[in-house]
Each structure stands twice: as C-alpha cells, then as structure tokens.
C-alpha cells in the first residue's frame, strides 16, 4: 500500500515476528486502517505500519500494542497524525505490496 | 489450502528449536508448513496453516517439543487472519 504522508501513520515495533503479526492482525480488525508496510531492522526488531484517519489509527495502535505485549515484547508504539510527506517516502520504501 | 485458513506461529531462539517445533507441529496435526522467517538476534519463527482446531493442537505440541530443545520466545494462533496479514506471512514462504 503506497503512502505519501496524506493520512495518519501508526507504528508498532516488537522484538520478534510473531508479536508483530499479531499487532498487524488486531490493528486491521479493530479499526478502519490499512497495512502499509512491515520492516525488520535487525536485532530482532520488527515494525508494522498502518495508515488511516487519525482516530482510527490511534485506536488501532492502542489495541495492536496491547495485543503484541500480551504474547511477546512490545518495544515501541507511536501515532503520527500528519507526518511530512518525506516520511511517507521512507515508509513506502518498505511497501508491503511491492515485490 | 484455503486463503482464510487459521495460522499458527512459534518463535524460538535458534534454528534447532524452531526445526523441532516445525517437525512436531506437522506430525501432531493436519497442518501445512508455510515456512520460516529469521529476524536476527537468534529469533526465528515458523508458521503453519490449516483448520483452526488442527492449528491449535499443532502449536501446543510444537511449544512442548521445542521447549525441550531450547527457549520458546512467543507463539500465537490467529483463527481467521485479516487479508492484509497474508502479505506479511507471504515473506515466510519457502520454495520446496
């Protein structure tokens, strides 16, 4: 899913893949958000990113972070209501729909 | 297998226990091994798919078996995964 910074961005980072997938599943199910990308930066840290309107993203991140923490280690959760479009360029680098 | 199959995950420290988990899961229940993903620092996860009851039984058996070999870091069963989650799980797929 392409992202140009036009919507709010929600981030949940976990140590390990399983809590990250759980966060992604819960976020997409509990609020009207779409999965934009996922990225493994090494050291076992995996980040999932969703986009949508700010209230939906806020609620999604809250639920997703709690779900991830329940089965593993959640290292960071954040909502960016209106990131600058350059941030969108970084996020789109890891576009989940691209190859 | 159907697209909306249940998914079962086990994440361990090290390849040895993850292979044991994969083996135990496939032997204990009628599930299909999708593949594995290594996110560094020794954290490796395997994912299986199948009927929700089978996946649940497989993960339980997998945790027990892998726990004897090495530490199990996390595990999970997603009964009916959201369509977007399949895009992440696709990274696990291994070529036979």
From TrEMBL, chain A:
Locations listed in the record: Bacterial microcompartment
InterPro entries per UniProt: BMC_dom (IPR000249), BMC_shell (IPR050575), CcmK-like_sf (IPR037233), CcmK/CsoS1_BMC (IPR044872)
UniProt keyword list: Bacterial microcompartment
Keyword Transmembrane: no
Pfam families found in the cross-reference section: BMC
Coiled coil region boundaries: none
Gene Ontology, cellular component aspect: bacterial microcompartment
Limits of the BMC domain: 8-92
Domain of life: Bacteria
Keyword Cytoplasm applies: no
Family: Belongs to the bacterial microcompartments protein family.
Name of this protein: Propanediol utilization protein PduA
Organism per entry: Sporomusa termitida
């Amino acid at each position: 899913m392409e992202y140009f910074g036009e919507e709010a961005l929600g981030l949940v980072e976990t140590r390990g893949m399983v809590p990250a997938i759980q966060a992604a599943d819960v976020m997409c199910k509990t609020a009207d958000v779409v999965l934009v990308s996922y990225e493994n930066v090494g050291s076992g840290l995996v980040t999932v990113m969703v986009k949508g309107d700010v209230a939906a993203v806020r609620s999604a991140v809250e639920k997703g972070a709690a779900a991830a923490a329940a089965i593993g280690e959640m290292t960071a959760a954040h909502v960016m209501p209106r990131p600058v479009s350059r941030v969108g360029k970084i996020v789109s680098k890891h576009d989940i729909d691209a190859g | 297998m159907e697209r909306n199959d249940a998914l079962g995950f086990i994440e361990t420290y090290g390849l040895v226990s993850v292979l044991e988990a994969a083996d135990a899961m496939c032997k204990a229940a009628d599930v299909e091994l999708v593949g594995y993903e290594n996110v560094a620092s020794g954290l490796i996860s395997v994912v299986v798919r199948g009927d929700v009851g089978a996946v649940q039984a497989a993960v339980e058996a997998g945790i027990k078996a892998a726990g004897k070999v090495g530490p199990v870091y996390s595990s999970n069963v997603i009964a009916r995964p959201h369509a977007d989650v399949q895009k992440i799980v696709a990274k696990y797929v291994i070529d036979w």
